[in-house]
Amino acid sequence: MAEINRRTLVQLLKLPEHLYCADCGxxxxxxxSYNIGIFICTECAACHRNLGSHISKVKSVFMDNWxxxxxxxxxxxxxxxxxxxxxxxxxxCYKRPCPTDVQVLxxxxxxxxxxxxxxxxxxxPIYLKGFMEGYLWKRGKExxxxxxxxxxLNESDDSLRYYVKENKEPKLVMKVSELNAVFCPMKVDHxxxxxxxxxxxxxxxxxxxxxxxGKDIVNWYMAIRSAKLNQMQIAFPESDPNExxxxxxxxxxxxxxxxxxGPRSGDTYRLRWLTLDNRRLMYLTNPLxxxxxxxIFIGYKENGFSVDKYILDVKQVGxxxxxxxxERSFIFSSDSEEEQKEWIEVLQKxxxxxxxxxxxxxxxxxxxxxxxxxxxxALKV
Length: 381
What we know:
26% strand, 7-stranded antiparallel beta sheet, ArfGAP_dom, metal-binding, single chain, PH-like_dom_sf, 32% helix, Arf-GAP with dual PH domain-containing protein 1-like isoform X2, PH1_ADAP, 10 helices
Protein backbone atom coordinates (compact mmCIF):
# COMPACT_ATOMS: atom_id res chain seq x y z
CA MET A 1 0.00 0.00 0.00
CA ALA A 2 2.84 2.41 0.89
CA GLU A 3 4.40 1.94 -2.53
CA ILE A 4 1.05 2.54 -4.27
CA ASN A 5 0.59 5.76 -2.30
CA ARG A 6 4.07 6.95 -3.26
CA ARG A 7 3.43 6.26 -6.95
CA THR A 8 0.21 8.27 -6.70
CA LEU A 9 2.14 11.22 -5.20
CA VAL A 10 4.77 11.00 -7.94
CA GLN A 11 2.03 11.18 -10.54
CA LEU A 12 0.55 14.22 -8.78
CA LEU A 13 3.96 15.92 -8.93
CA LYS A 14 3.85 15.65 -12.73
CA LEU A 15 0.78 17.89 -12.96
CA PRO A 16 1.57 21.42 -14.21
CA GLU A 17 0.38 23.04 -10.95
CA HIS A 18 2.84 20.90 -8.93
CA LEU A 19 5.99 21.43 -11.00
CA TYR A 20 6.82 24.41 -8.80
CA CYS A 21 6.72 25.09 -5.06
CA ALA A 22 3.35 26.44 -3.90
CA ASP A 23 5.05 29.15 -1.82
CA CYS A 24 8.20 30.42 -3.58
CA GLY A 25 7.91 28.92 -7.07
CA UNK A 26 11.10 26.85 -6.87
CA UNK A 27 11.24 24.13 -9.49
CA UNK A 28 10.79 20.46 -8.57
CA UNK A 29 9.22 20.40 -5.08
CA UNK A 30 9.91 17.18 -3.17
CA UNK A 31 8.04 17.93 0.06
CA UNK A 32 4.40 18.44 0.96
CA SER A 33 2.17 19.83 3.68
CA TYR A 34 -0.46 17.14 3.72
CA ASN A 35 -3.03 18.88 5.92
CA ILE A 36 -2.88 22.04 3.78
CA GLY A 37 -2.58 19.95 0.61
CA ILE A 38 0.37 21.59 -1.18
CA PHE A 39 3.71 20.53 -2.67
CA ILE A 40 6.66 22.65 -1.54
CA CYS A 41 10.45 22.91 -1.84
CA THR A 42 13.01 22.03 0.84
CA GLU A 43 13.45 25.64 2.04
CA CYS A 44 9.74 26.29 2.35
CA ALA A 45 9.27 22.91 4.05
CA ALA A 46 11.59 24.15 6.81
CA CYS A 47 9.45 27.30 7.16
CA HIS A 48 6.32 25.13 7.42
CA ARG A 49 7.90 23.08 10.20
CA ASN A 50 8.48 26.27 12.16
CA LEU A 51 4.73 26.97 12.00
CA GLY A 52 4.09 23.96 14.20
CA SER A 53 2.30 20.73 13.33
CA HIS A 54 -1.03 22.24 14.41
CA ILE A 55 -0.75 24.54 11.38
CA SER A 56 1.19 22.51 8.83
CA LYS A 57 2.12 18.83 8.76
CA VAL A 58 5.14 18.27 6.53
CA LYS A 59 6.34 15.08 4.86
CA SER A 60 8.85 14.11 2.20
CA VAL A 61 7.24 12.75 -0.95
CA PHE A 62 10.02 10.20 -1.46
CA MET A 63 11.43 9.41 2.00
CA ASP A 64 8.35 9.22 4.25
CA ASN A 65 5.48 6.76 4.37
CA TRP A 66 2.03 8.05 3.44
CA UNK A 67 -1.38 6.67 4.33
CA UNK A 68 -4.39 6.75 2.05
CA UNK A 69 -6.12 9.67 3.81
CA UNK A 70 -3.02 11.88 3.48
CA UNK A 71 -2.68 11.10 -0.20
CA UNK A 72 -6.38 11.77 -0.71
CA UNK A 73 -5.96 15.24 0.85
CA UNK A 74 -3.20 16.01 -1.68
CA UNK A 75 -5.49 14.87 -4.50
CA UNK A 76 -8.46 16.86 -3.22
CA UNK A 77 -6.58 20.14 -2.66
CA UNK A 78 -3.33 20.68 -4.58
CA UNK A 79 -1.41 23.90 -5.24
CA UNK A 80 -4.01 25.64 -7.39
CA UNK A 81 -6.94 25.16 -5.03
CA UNK A 82 -4.79 26.15 -2.05
CA UNK A 83 -3.84 29.34 -3.86
CA UNK A 84 -7.51 30.14 -4.42
CA UNK A 85 -8.17 29.59 -0.71
CA UNK A 86 -5.20 31.29 0.94
CA UNK A 87 -4.34 34.08 -1.54
CA UNK A 88 -7.70 35.72 -2.21
CA UNK A 89 -6.77 39.21 -1.00
CA UNK A 90 -3.01 39.54 -1.57
CA UNK A 91 -2.37 43.31 -1.92
CA UNK A 92 -0.88 44.50 -5.17
CA CYS A 93 2.07 46.00 -3.29
CA TYR A 94 2.93 42.70 -1.56
CA LYS A 95 6.12 41.18 -2.95
CA ARG A 96 5.55 37.48 -3.36
CA PRO A 97 8.87 35.68 -2.88
CA CYS A 98 10.74 33.89 -5.63
CA PRO A 99 13.33 31.11 -5.09
CA THR A 100 16.25 33.56 -4.86
CA ASP A 101 14.64 35.89 -2.29
CA VAL A 102 15.89 36.13 1.28
CA GLN A 103 14.66 33.75 3.94
CA VAL A 104 12.75 36.32 6.00
CA LEU A 105 10.56 37.21 3.01
CA UNK A 106 9.71 33.53 2.43
CA UNK A 107 9.07 32.91 6.12
CA UNK A 108 6.72 35.85 6.50
CA UNK A 109 4.88 35.03 3.27
CA UNK A 110 4.23 31.53 4.60
CA UNK A 111 3.24 32.77 8.06
CA UNK A 112 0.96 35.43 6.54
CA UNK A 113 -0.81 32.82 4.42
CA UNK A 114 -1.26 29.89 6.77
CA UNK A 115 -0.67 31.13 10.33
CA UNK A 116 -2.16 34.62 10.31
CA UNK A 117 -4.32 34.01 7.21
CA UNK A 118 -3.88 37.66 6.20
CA UNK A 119 -5.06 37.12 2.64
CA UNK A 120 -8.29 35.25 3.38
CA UNK A 121 -10.11 38.10 5.11
CA UNK A 122 -10.41 41.48 3.34
CA UNK A 123 -9.23 43.40 6.43
CA UNK A 124 -6.39 45.87 5.84
CA PRO A 125 -3.08 44.81 7.40
CA ILE A 126 -0.96 47.48 9.10
CA TYR A 127 1.25 48.08 6.07
CA LEU A 128 -1.71 49.22 3.95
CA LYS A 129 -2.97 51.92 6.30
CA GLY A 130 -0.76 54.74 5.03
CA PHE A 131 0.75 55.42 8.44
CA MET A 132 3.16 53.30 10.42
CA GLU A 133 5.48 53.94 13.34
CA GLY A 134 7.80 51.77 15.35
CA TYR A 135 11.39 51.09 16.30
CA LEU A 136 14.23 49.72 14.20
CA TRP A 137 17.91 49.21 14.91
CA LYS A 138 19.78 51.71 12.68
CA ARG A 139 23.49 51.73 11.90
CA GLY A 140 25.18 54.98 12.87
CA LYS A 141 26.60 57.12 10.08
CA GLU A 142 29.78 57.94 12.01
CA UNK A 143 30.34 54.53 13.64
CA UNK A 144 29.54 50.87 13.12
CA UNK A 145 27.13 50.49 16.04
CA UNK A 146 23.39 49.99 15.70
CA UNK A 147 21.08 52.18 17.78
CA UNK A 148 17.35 51.80 18.42
CA UNK A 149 15.55 54.59 16.55
CA UNK A 150 11.93 55.53 16.07
CA UNK A 151 10.73 55.50 12.45
CA UNK A 152 7.50 57.06 11.18
CA LEU A 153 6.06 56.51 7.70
CA ASN A 154 3.33 58.92 6.59
CA GLU A 155 1.92 58.38 3.13
CA SER A 156 -0.10 61.62 3.18
CA ASP A 157 3.04 63.77 3.04
CA ASP A 158 5.23 61.19 1.26
CA SER A 159 7.67 60.93 4.17
CA LEU A 160 9.72 58.42 6.10
CA ARG A 161 11.28 59.98 9.21
CA TYR A 162 13.53 58.71 11.93
CA TYR A 163 14.19 60.24 15.33
CA VAL A 164 17.15 60.12 17.66
CA LYS A 165 15.01 61.63 20.43
CA GLU A 166 11.24 61.39 20.18
CA ASN A 167 10.53 64.85 21.57
CA LYS A 168 12.91 66.50 19.12
CA GLU A 169 12.75 67.20 15.41
CA PRO A 170 13.39 64.20 13.14
CA LYS A 171 17.03 63.49 12.39
CA LEU A 172 16.22 62.80 8.76
CA VAL A 173 13.19 63.08 6.48
CA MET A 174 13.09 60.97 3.31
CA LYS A 175 10.58 61.05 0.46
CA VAL A 176 9.08 57.57 0.25
CA SER A 177 8.44 57.99 -3.48
CA GLU A 178 12.17 58.56 -4.10
CA LEU A 179 13.70 55.79 -2.00
CA ASN A 180 14.43 52.13 -2.56
CA ALA A 181 14.44 49.32 -0.01
CA VAL A 182 16.15 45.93 -0.34
CA PHE A 183 16.81 43.16 2.15
CA CYS A 184 20.51 42.73 3.00
CA PRO A 185 21.03 39.98 5.63
CA MET A 186 24.52 39.10 4.36
CA LYS A 187 25.81 42.67 4.59
CA VAL A 188 24.53 43.41 8.08
CA ASP A 189 24.91 39.81 9.31
CA HIS A 190 21.34 39.81 10.57
CA UNK A 191 18.42 37.81 9.13
CA UNK A 192 16.01 40.77 9.35
CA UNK A 193 18.17 43.51 7.81
CA UNK A 194 17.16 46.05 5.18
CA UNK A 195 19.02 48.70 3.18
CA UNK A 196 17.25 51.97 2.35
CA UNK A 197 18.76 54.11 -0.41
CA UNK A 198 17.83 57.56 -1.63
CA UNK A 199 19.48 60.65 -3.12
CA UNK A 200 20.58 63.34 -0.65
CA UNK A 201 22.46 66.48 -1.72
CA UNK A 202 23.22 64.97 -5.10
CA UNK A 203 24.60 61.64 -3.91
CA UNK A 204 23.21 58.31 -2.79
CA UNK A 205 22.65 57.87 0.94
CA UNK A 206 22.57 54.36 2.38
CA UNK A 207 20.75 53.56 5.63
CA UNK A 208 20.99 50.11 7.19
CA UNK A 209 18.36 48.89 9.64
CA UNK A 210 17.15 45.64 11.14
CA UNK A 211 14.28 44.46 13.33
CA UNK A 212 14.34 41.91 16.10
CA UNK A 213 11.29 40.22 14.59
CA GLY A 214 11.01 39.17 10.95
CA LYS A 215 7.37 40.20 10.78
CA ASP A 216 8.29 43.79 11.71
CA ILE A 217 10.92 44.27 9.00
CA VAL A 218 8.65 42.75 6.34
CA ASN A 219 5.79 45.02 7.46
CA TRP A 220 8.08 48.06 7.04
CA TYR A 221 9.17 46.82 3.64
CA MET A 222 5.58 46.32 2.49
CA ALA A 223 4.51 49.69 3.96
CA ILE A 224 7.18 51.39 1.85
CA ARG A 225 6.01 49.49 -1.23
CA SER A 226 2.36 50.36 -0.53
CA ALA A 227 3.10 54.07 -0.15
CA LYS A 228 5.26 54.10 -3.30
CA LEU A 229 2.56 52.31 -5.29
CA ASN A 230 -0.13 54.78 -4.23
CA GLN A 231 2.13 57.76 -4.99
CA MET A 232 3.00 56.38 -8.44
CA GLN A 233 -0.65 55.71 -9.25
CA ILE A 234 -1.40 59.35 -8.47
CA ALA A 235 1.55 60.57 -10.55
CA PHE A 236 0.84 58.19 -13.46
CA PRO A 237 -2.91 57.46 -13.36
CA GLU A 238 -2.97 55.83 -16.81
CA SER A 239 -0.22 53.30 -16.00
CA ASP A 240 -1.03 49.63 -15.47
CA PRO A 241 -0.89 49.09 -11.66
CA ASN A 242 0.45 45.56 -12.14
CA GLU A 243 3.37 46.90 -14.20
CA UNK A 244 4.02 49.69 -11.69
CA UNK A 245 4.09 47.16 -8.85
CA UNK A 246 6.95 45.27 -10.53
CA UNK A 247 9.26 48.26 -10.14
CA UNK A 248 8.49 49.47 -6.60
CA UNK A 249 11.62 48.22 -4.84
CA UNK A 250 13.97 46.82 -7.51
CA UNK A 251 16.75 44.52 -6.39
CA UNK A 252 20.33 45.61 -7.04
CA UNK A 253 21.33 44.16 -10.41
CA UNK A 254 24.75 43.11 -9.12
CA UNK A 255 27.06 43.66 -6.16
CA UNK A 256 30.53 42.52 -5.20
CA UNK A 257 34.19 43.29 -4.58
CA UNK A 258 36.35 44.55 -7.45
CA UNK A 259 39.67 46.34 -7.68
CA UNK A 260 39.33 49.80 -9.23
CA UNK A 261 42.17 51.75 -10.83
CA GLY A 262 42.54 55.46 -10.10
CA PRO A 263 42.13 58.01 -12.92
CA ARG A 264 45.85 58.88 -13.29
CA SER A 265 48.36 56.68 -15.11
CA GLY A 266 50.41 56.05 -11.98
CA ASP A 267 47.45 55.24 -9.74
CA THR A 268 47.20 51.80 -8.17
CA TYR A 269 44.23 49.45 -7.93
CA ARG A 270 42.17 49.71 -4.75
CA LEU A 271 39.62 47.23 -3.46
CA ARG A 272 36.10 48.62 -3.73
CA TRP A 273 32.59 47.30 -3.12
CA LEU A 274 30.44 47.92 -6.21
CA THR A 275 26.66 48.14 -6.23
CA LEU A 276 24.72 48.39 -9.48
CA ASP A 277 21.34 49.97 -8.77
CA ASN A 278 19.60 50.20 -12.14
CA ARG A 279 21.80 52.68 -14.08
CA ARG A 280 23.68 53.93 -11.03
CA LEU A 281 27.00 52.15 -10.39
CA MET A 282 28.30 53.03 -6.94
CA TYR A 283 31.72 52.13 -5.54
CA LEU A 284 32.38 52.11 -1.80
CA THR A 285 35.26 51.36 0.53
CA ASN A 286 32.96 49.27 2.73
CA PRO A 287 29.57 47.73 1.80
CA LEU A 288 28.00 49.49 4.83
CA UNK A 289 29.31 52.98 4.07
CA UNK A 290 26.61 55.67 4.31
CA UNK A 291 27.84 57.33 1.10
CA UNK A 292 29.68 55.92 -1.94
CA UNK A 293 33.12 57.20 -2.81
CA UNK A 294 31.86 57.73 -6.32
CA UNK A 295 29.01 57.01 -8.71
CA ILE A 296 28.94 56.27 -12.43
CA PHE A 297 25.85 56.72 -14.56
CA ILE A 298 25.46 53.86 -17.06
CA GLY A 299 23.92 55.39 -20.15
CA TYR A 300 22.80 54.24 -23.59
CA LYS A 301 25.42 52.63 -25.87
CA GLU A 302 24.74 55.13 -28.70
CA ASN A 303 25.71 57.99 -26.37
CA GLY A 304 29.30 56.88 -25.81
CA PHE A 305 28.96 54.10 -23.22
CA SER A 306 30.65 50.72 -23.64
CA VAL A 307 32.26 47.92 -21.63
CA ASP A 308 34.77 45.29 -22.70
CA LYS A 309 37.61 43.12 -21.47
CA TYR A 310 40.84 44.87 -20.54
CA ILE A 311 44.35 43.44 -20.57
CA LEU A 312 45.97 44.15 -17.21
CA ASP A 313 49.66 44.93 -16.90
CA VAL A 314 52.01 42.11 -15.92
CA LYS A 315 52.17 43.25 -12.28
CA GLN A 316 48.39 43.08 -11.84
CA VAL A 317 46.72 39.75 -11.12
CA GLY A 318 43.10 39.25 -12.11
CA UNK A 319 40.63 39.66 -14.96
CA UNK A 320 40.14 43.23 -16.15
CA UNK A 321 37.36 45.11 -17.88
CA UNK A 322 37.07 48.73 -18.94
CA UNK A 323 33.94 50.84 -18.65
CA UNK A 324 33.91 53.74 -21.12
CA UNK A 325 31.74 56.81 -20.48
CA UNK A 326 31.73 60.20 -22.26
CA GLU A 327 33.53 61.71 -19.24
CA ARG A 328 36.30 59.13 -18.64
CA SER A 329 37.34 55.50 -18.62
CA PHE A 330 37.02 53.27 -15.55
CA ILE A 331 39.21 50.19 -15.22
CA PHE A 332 38.26 47.30 -12.90
CA SER A 333 39.76 43.95 -12.06
CA SER A 334 37.96 40.85 -10.76
CA ASP A 335 39.35 37.72 -9.12
CA SER A 336 37.74 35.32 -11.59
CA GLU A 337 36.95 35.16 -15.28
CA GLU A 338 33.35 34.24 -14.41
CA GLU A 339 32.95 37.41 -12.34
CA GLN A 340 34.47 39.48 -15.15
CA LYS A 341 31.98 37.97 -17.60
CA GLU A 342 29.00 38.61 -15.29
CA TRP A 343 29.87 42.29 -14.81
CA ILE A 344 30.40 42.84 -18.55
CA GLU A 345 27.10 41.13 -19.41
CA VAL A 346 24.97 43.03 -16.88
CA LEU A 347 26.51 46.39 -17.86
CA GLN A 348 26.02 45.67 -21.58
CA LYS A 349 22.40 44.74 -20.95
CA UNK A 350 21.77 48.14 -19.35
CA UNK A 351 23.61 49.99 -22.11
CA UNK A 352 21.44 48.30 -24.74
CA UNK A 353 18.31 49.87 -23.24
CA UNK A 354 17.33 53.43 -24.29
CA UNK A 355 16.95 55.95 -21.45
CA UNK A 356 13.58 56.64 -19.83
CA UNK A 357 12.63 60.07 -18.48
CA UNK A 358 13.48 58.84 -14.97
CA UNK A 359 16.86 57.59 -16.21
CA UNK A 360 17.64 61.05 -17.62
CA UNK A 361 16.89 62.65 -14.25
CA UNK A 362 19.24 60.17 -12.60
CA UNK A 363 21.93 61.07 -15.14
CA UNK A 364 21.66 64.76 -14.29
CA UNK A 365 22.08 64.08 -10.57
CA UNK A 366 25.09 61.79 -11.01
CA UNK A 367 26.78 64.08 -13.58
CA UNK A 368 26.35 67.10 -11.30
CA UNK A 369 28.04 65.20 -8.50
CA UNK A 370 30.83 64.09 -10.85
CA UNK A 371 31.43 67.69 -11.94
CA UNK A 372 31.49 68.93 -8.35
CA UNK A 373 33.84 66.11 -7.33
CA UNK A 374 36.26 66.93 -10.17
CA UNK A 375 36.29 70.60 -9.23
CA UNK A 376 36.85 69.74 -5.59
CA UNK A 377 39.88 67.55 -6.40
CA ALA A 378 41.27 70.29 -8.66
CA LEU A 379 41.06 72.77 -5.80
CA LYS A 380 42.85 70.33 -3.48
CA VAL A 381 45.70 69.97 -5.97
